[in-house]
Design goal:
120 residues, alpha/beta, Ribosomal Protein L15, Chain: K, domain 2, five-stranded parallel sheet, 5 strands
């Protein structure tokens, strides 16, 4: 049986855009994110805010190719880009002074993928 990738058209377009940006701007970070997004939904990462707090640095862009959940505390000002967010995670990111953006917005803001960290 052949793997077909996501059937969601929005996810497919996002993966295509990520691969294109990776080649155009020589940014392997976007290629890695696209690779993780091609996994089945049940194998995509779900990352808690506490893990972001543990591994991220102040002012950095954190990329989560899955869902961000609200367990834990965030005390660093970071920009978090993810496929989706829980409501509690959005509140905690905003209270810490950070920003929550979609992967499309992150790609537009930072096409070269500089100062980023992928958390899986």
């Amino acid at each position: 049986m052949r793997r077909t990738g996501p059937t969601n058209i929005i996810a497919r377009k996002l993966i295509t855009a990520l691969r294109k940006a990776s080649k155009e701007h020589n940014a392997p970070v976007w290629d890695r994110v696209a690779e993780v997004l091609e996994r089945p939904t049940r194998r995509r990462p779900a990352v808690n805010v506490s893990k972001i707090n543990r591994y991220a640095r102040e002012g950095e862009m954190v990329i989560v190719p899955g869902k961000v959940l609200g367990a834990g505390v965030l005390d660093k000002r970071v920009t978090v880009a993810a496929l989706s967010f829980s409501m509690q995670a959005l509140v905690k990111i905003k209270l810490a002074g950070g920003r929550a953006v979609t992967l499309e917005e992150a790609l537009r803001e930072n096409p070269r993928g500089t100062n980023t960290r992928i958390i899986i």
